[in-house]
Please model this.
Amino acid sequence: MRSFIARRSLRAFAKRYGYDVSYFEMLLNESPAAFFKLAPLMKAAAHREVVPVEASFAAKIVGALAEDCGPCTQLVVDMALEAGMAKDQIEAVLRRDVRAMNEATTLAFRFADAVVRRSANDEEFRDAVKAQWGEKGVIDLTMGLQLGRMFPMVKAGLGYAKECRRVTVSGHNVDVVKQAA
Model:
C-alpha cells in the first residue's frame, strides 16, 4: 500500500513539474527500504523558517547548479517560480549577476556560493546571514543548499543523470554561469 501511494505521488510530481522521476521509481522498485529513507528528505529540502523566499531559493539554485547540468536545476527554478520568487532574481542567480540581485538574494547567493566553493569568505557570509536572520537563517540556507545538492548526486550515482539542457525561466532561455569568470 505504501509503495502504491509513493508511485502515485511520484507520477503526480512528474506531471506537475515535467520532471523525470525514473531514478526514484527505480529506487522504489529495487530498494523500497532505501526509497522510504530518502523520501523524508524531500520534505526537509523544503525547510524554510525565517529567510525570504528569494533567499531560500537562491541557495537552492546554487546547490543544484553545483551538482547538475539542467534538469534538477530546472526543477528548482520551477519551484522557485511557484513559490513566488521574482523571475529577474532567479535569472540573476543563474547568471551569477550580483548587481541584478536584491539584498536578500545577494546575501543568500554569496553565502551558498562560498560554502559550495569552500571559500575562505564563508565565515564572513555566515556572519552576515546570522546578523540578518539569526541562526535560523543560517540553518534555512544551509538546509536548502545542501539538500538541494543531494538529489542530483543520487540521480548521478544511480546512473540517471544523462541529460544536460538549457534552463528556462517562464519559457525564456537563460545563459547559466556555473563559475565566476
Summary: The first strand starts at residue 167 and ends at 169.
